[in-house]
Each structure stands twice: as structure tokens, then as C-alpha cells.
User: Which sequence fits this backbone?
């Protein structure tokens, strides 16, 4: 199923809702949803990434991310849609649940 790019007002509304549950950590950077997660150590960060990888594969929606020691930096966008889609917010919410 093709994803459609969300409008700026849709993105702002969804971002506000996401941040109500995430403590305001998600931002827009470079036209992508952006967040940095901090974990106790490398094992915690890697475990989080492993769990997210399973969800992302089931969704067929893969994050752009970067890991250094206990920090995981995430950018979400839907390349096929040319911007942010519902799938990005769905994956962001799943990441929030897994990071708890």
C-alpha cells in the first residue's frame, strides 16, 4: 500500500500528540522526525535497536539511525512518499514503547 506524505498541519498535530506521551523529545529536523535516545550502556542501546529492527521489518518501514555507545539517534521519513507519513509516526510510537 502506497504511503502518502502528510501535510505540515497534519505533521504538527501528530508531533504534538506523540510528544505528549514521549515527553517532548521528538522534533522535526531536515524534513524528518528526529529523536535521540539515551540508555544505561551499549547493551541497552543495542537491545533497543534489535527490538525496533523486528518491528520495522514487520512494518517494512526502516529507520535511519546511528548508534554510539549508549546513544541511538533516529530520523524517520518515508522515501516512497517523499516526506513524513503515518508509518513514521507509527514506528516512532513503537520506539517510545520499546524504550520504556
Assistant:
Amino acid at each position: 500500500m502506497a504511503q502518502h506524505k502528510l501535510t505540515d498541519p497534519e505533521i504538527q498535530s501528530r508531533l504534538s500528540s506523540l510528544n505528549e506521551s514521549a515527553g517532548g523529545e521528538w522534533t522535526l529536523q531536515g524534513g524528518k522526525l528526529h529523536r535521540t535516545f539515551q540508555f544505561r550502556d551499549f547493551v541497552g542501546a543495542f537491545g533497543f535497536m534489535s527490538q525496533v529492527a523486528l518491528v520495522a521489518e514487520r512494518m517494512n518501514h526502516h529507520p535511519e539511525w546511528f548508534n554510539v555507545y549508549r546513544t541511538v539517534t533516529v530520523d524517520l521519513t518515508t522515501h516512497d512518499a517523499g516526506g513524513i507519513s503515518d508509518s513514521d509516526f507509527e514506528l516512532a510510537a513503537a520506539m517510545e514503547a520499546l524504550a520504556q
About this structure: Residues 42-59 form the longest helix (18 residues).
